[in-house]
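Students often ask why we bother encoding 3D structure as a string. The short answer is that it lets us treat folding as translation between two languages. Here is a chain of 105 residues written in the first language.
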Amino acid sequence: MKLLPTSKYTRWVLINIVNICCIIICFILLLKILFLDTYSVSVYYQQKNELKKLAVRSEKLQDENKALEIEIDKLKNDPVYIESLARRNYSMVKKGEEVYLFKTN
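And here it is in the second language, the structure alphabet:
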């Protein structure tokens, strides 16, 4: 009794079955890598988009920080700026100035 077939046809059929199984396994692995894995291509692109958004947000926050640093510097060192804030926001006046109130409709 022989364990392996010896005819050319059965050998050809077995080789084709093995080839098809290998192709199917490779296809399944490719799908897993592309879509199902933790480090899949779709996750990569999602993270890449999130990184771009965070970079834009970081740049905006840095610009806001610079503006706030300039504001702090003005508040510490510029008496004219402080005076203009006091007049505008708190309706303060200097001694001897007269205030005129106008009614608006």
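Translate back mentally: The CA atoms of residues 16 and 78 lie 86 Å apart. Keep this in mind for the problem set.
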